[in-house]
Q: What sequence folds into this?
């Protein structure tokens, strides 16, 4: 079985870790190996240059999580990390001081930056980094082209435009998310470079040749939404032969973790599992999903979602540990088979 999954950082990678655990536990020869090939299409809209280093936060979160190197407590960056270089850079007064650049993590960014400078593509560099981490999936960036998410906000320094209204400026997604904790109201998102970006090698093939396509509980706007914005990817999902199943990142009207509500608000979508399903839409109606899994707490919306032409089930959706997440993944496979 070939599975293609779109993924952001923490929500996406934790789900895929559970999926791999489930696949390993059901392998016919009990060897812990897997009969499924999983391709993860990672969001690179969060990518940023920091102190001359090319940082790909979501690709690294997937790589470290599946490769066993992620900080269990933080959910991003390396276990046993130190931040000496970050403190030294701050002592020089150079910005950005708000980005969490760990010492071990810097090695990854150095390898990536040097390889990109030598002329390798982001896909090639990602594959090379994965030879160390052995994530158990094929990890592909959504695109090798630079396409970075920016957020249009009122100037945080209070500048006004000519007509005396707050001046609107676009800041990098990471600045909005980390420095301002998504508290500056977002007018809109702009993915700089997306119009001319093309899917990375293997991305469209993974979608077209898949037996199952999964939208894990990743941010619908700045993770899944960004991947779908790469020209060609949305059409490939709409016309794929495989069923598409989505897992809600919204439970009981709130994100389980992070500030996805601030992102949804910016695009005029209510923070509820039903509204996110409506936003994705039924594939039978020009949308992206066939099946939608919501948490048991949201069992009341199953009918509303079903009425959209999306088959919907309520199951426990909290990824409290790998075993619980593996059960979620098992439900995913079962929902598609039934
Ligand atoms: P990011 O790039 O690190 O923000 O990660 P993703 O975009 O992949 O995932 C973020 C989303 O994961 C958030 O909107 C969370 O609500 C969701 N999430 C995190 N933990 C859980 C969980 O245990 N269950 C569910 N259903 N969603 C979760
Ligand atoms: Ca992200």
A:
């Amino acid at each position: 079985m070939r599975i293609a999954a779109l993924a952001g950082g923490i929500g996406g990678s934790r789900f895929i870790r559970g999926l791999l655990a489930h696949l390993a536990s059901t392998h016919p020869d009990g060897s812990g190996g897997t009969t499924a090939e999983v391709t993860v299409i990672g969001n690179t809209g969060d990518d940023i240059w920091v102190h001359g280093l090319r940082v790909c936060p979501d690709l690294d979160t997937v790589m470290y999580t599946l490769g066993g190197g992620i900080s269990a407590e933080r959910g991003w960056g390396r276990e046993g990390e130190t931040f000496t270089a970050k403190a030294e850079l701050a002592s020089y007064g150079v910005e950005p001081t708000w980005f969490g650049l760990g010492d071990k993590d810097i090695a990854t960014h150095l390898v990536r930056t040097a390889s990109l400078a030598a002329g390798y593509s982001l896909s090639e560099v990602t594959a090379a980094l994965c030879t160390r981490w052995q994530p158990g999936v094929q990890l592909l960036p959504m695109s090798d082209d630079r396409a970075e998410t920016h957020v249009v906000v009122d100037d945080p320094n209070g500048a006004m435009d000519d007509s005396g209204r707050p001046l609107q400026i676009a800041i990098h997604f990471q600045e909005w998310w980390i420095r301002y904790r998504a508290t500056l109201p977002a007018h809109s998102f702009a993915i700089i470079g997306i119009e001319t970006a093309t899917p990375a090698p293997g991305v469209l093939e993974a979608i077209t040749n898949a037996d199952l396509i999964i939208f894990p509980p990743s941010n619908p706007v700045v993770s899944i939404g960004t991947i779908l914005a790469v020209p060609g990817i949305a059409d490939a999902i709409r016309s794929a032969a495989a069923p598409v199943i989505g897992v809600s990142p919204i439970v009981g009207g709130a994100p389980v973790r992070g500030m996805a509500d601030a992102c949804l608000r910016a695009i005029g979508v209510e923070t509820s599992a039903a509204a996110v399903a409506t936003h994705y839409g039924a594939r039978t109606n020009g949308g992206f999903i066939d099946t939608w899994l919501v948490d048991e707490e949201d069992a009341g919306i199953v009918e509303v979602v079903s009425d959209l032409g999306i088959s919907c089930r309520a199951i426990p959706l909290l990824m409290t540990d790998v075993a619980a997440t593996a059960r979620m993944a098992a439900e995913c496979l079962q929902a598609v088979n039934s």
User: Anything to note?
Assistant: The pocket of calcium ion (ligand 2) is lined by residues 8-9, 43, 46, 57-58, 223 (CB under 6 Å). The CA atoms of residues 18 and 284 lie 29 Å apart. The chain has a mean pLDDT of 96.
